[in-house]
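User: Teach me something about this protein's shape.
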Amino acid sequence: MRHIFREAWSGLKRNTSMSLAVIVTMWVSLSLFGLGLLAAEQVELVKGRWYDQIEISVFMCVQDSQDVNCDPGQDTTDAERAIIRKTLEDNPEVAQVFYESKVEAYQEFREVYADSPILAAMTEEMMQDSFRVRLVNPEEYMGVVTSVQGLKGVQSVQDLRKYLDPLFTWLNMAQMGTIGASALLLLAAALQIGNTIRLAAFSRRREIGIMRLVGASNWYIMLPFLMESLAAALGGAVLACGSIAALEQFVIKEKAAVEIVSVRWIDWQQVHFSMFWLLVVGVVLSVVPTVIATRRFLKV
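Assistant: First, the predicted structure itself:
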């Protein structure tokens, strides 16, 4: 083993600039890859929290409503309201139904717009009463929407998902873009490792030929090159792990989590999970290119 370690160290010193280039490339690419993994976890945490709180709002008609389900100049009647409530309560996708009267809606409006001049222009009669619907599964909401949106007395059905879905679509696109960019950089790192090992093996081709002639095994010849590439890759992976750990501590824990307390942020469990995959990817990217690059030199 002393010979293997000595040869690996000699190779690292001989190709210092190439080894440093590999380390930096692995560092940047694995950091982006880890950032993509953490972004995916963060999106799922935010999605789970917001989706669990989603309610469907079913707004009743008022006198100036122009919807086809509303009679001109007339509010939703008590009979129509009772049918709407029963339809909602009988739906198996509905967990709970709350009714908000015009009085309650006006009180909430006054609290929200207490310092706004718009308050003077609004009256209690201008408010819309509504049903707030809590869903069994927030992912399955269309059945509830379609069951009531055509009922007499329903002016509109508002679902928060139509505002959240575009947001999460863009977040997922940003996440995929980060992972895609990291994949390209990881490919560049793998090619760089392969070229570095190929040059190192070419410069020692005579030694390799002699070792093959005296009966040295392929693994004995390959191990110094594997250790050389593994050291460079793990150096980049360790730096990448340090980068995402710094991100978690100084950006998320000490800044974002303090200033935005309403959002559930990723914790060290997700960071450790990402670190594990960074190390796995780093090892794979060091072993595979090395085996491919040295295979042609192992033939006598």
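Now, about its shape. The radius of gyration is 32 Å. The chain has a mean pLDDT of 79. If you'd like, I can walk through any region in more detail.
User: That's plenty for now, thanks!
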